[in-house]
Amino acid sequence: MNNDYLDPINSVGMPDLADNSFALEFLMRAKNGVRNCAFAIAETATPDARNILREQLNDSLALHDEIANLMINKHWLHPHQVGEQFKLDLKSADTTIKIANLDLFPKDTARLGLFATPDK
Which terminal residue of the chain has fewer beta carbons within 10 Å of its beta carbon, N or C? Predict the structure, then answer.
């Protein structure tokens, strides 16, 4: 990755990185849903509400499991291989730092000759 945010070379691999990021965010949200359902069950007084929350908890657990399995199959998550997950996390952190360091407001924004443009 170079420092020019408009350079097309910086977009290589971005769809996979974006999918990975979206899946991880979805996994974290599903995990919060599981926690919130479990907490709500413990705080609920009526049996009917508790039964509804148990069903919701089971659905939340199934969703979390489905997302985690997808990520494992795509090699975006390595829950049983700490070394591999650590390498993946380091790569993700490095990419994040590189994106954060891009000059998003360069002084020279002329792109003539860089892309195919019609003759004027």
Answer: C
Summarised one tens digit per residue, pLDDT across range 29-48 is 999 999 999 999 999 999 99
Copy the structure tokens of residue 21: 């990021």
Which residue in the block uniquely carries the two structure tokens 């892309």? Answer: 115
CA distance 30 to 118: 48
Domain boundaries, the chain: 8-100
Report the amino acid identity of residue 120: K
| Residues 98, 1 contacting (CB under 8 angstroms) | yes
Beta carbons within 10 angstroms of residue 4's beta carbon: 13
Helix residue ranges, H only, the chain: 14-43, 47-73, 82-100
| One-character DSSP codes across 48-70 | HHHHHHHHHHHHHHHHHHHHHHH
Instruction: For residues 74 and 32, give the distance between their C-alpha atoms in angstroms, rounded to a whole number.
Output: 22
